[in-house]
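Notes from the 1:1 (GR / supervisor)

We went over the backlog. Supervisor wanted to see one worked example end to end before approving the batch request, so GR pasted a single chain during the call. The sequence is below; no edits were made to it. Supervisor asked that the structure be written out right there so they could see what the output format looks like.
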Amino acid sequence: MNSLKTQKFMNLFNDILTNKNGASLKSLLLESDKKGDDVDLVNAQKEEQLHLRLGQRNVLFLKKVEAAKQKILDGTYGDCEDCGDTISQSRLTARPTACLCIGCQEEKEQAQFNNINYRRDLSAIKRDESHGTDELKTKRNFNSINDIGFESVVDL
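Structure output shown during the call:
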């Protein structure tokens, strides 16, 4: 990778770290108003939990940015951590913190998909081996709101 592109990524990482750290400090300084009825308090608590979860994700992202910045300084930025090949410029443009080439990333995701511990509840899906497709076993019928099971998008 040439030095101009490397400098471009270094500037991007510096901007991300400057802006994210400033934004997280602002959010820590803001006080939430703890007045209202029970519903308001529960909503405020759920919102705090969501902010905490997003803050944790932000910390992980900032660690990835720091690692990518360190790789630039070490001269290893753009090299796949698994196979050692060069990560394509288009992949780095789309995901500057990428540490795996597209082939290794696809292998990793496929291994995770095949591992049942990474999958959600698949009890309603039936595998049709003859066609290699998945289809729903049965259509569920709901008689009341209590029959519906809701699944959280964000793990709290």
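Supervisor's comment: Strands lie at 125-128, 133-136.
Batch request approved.
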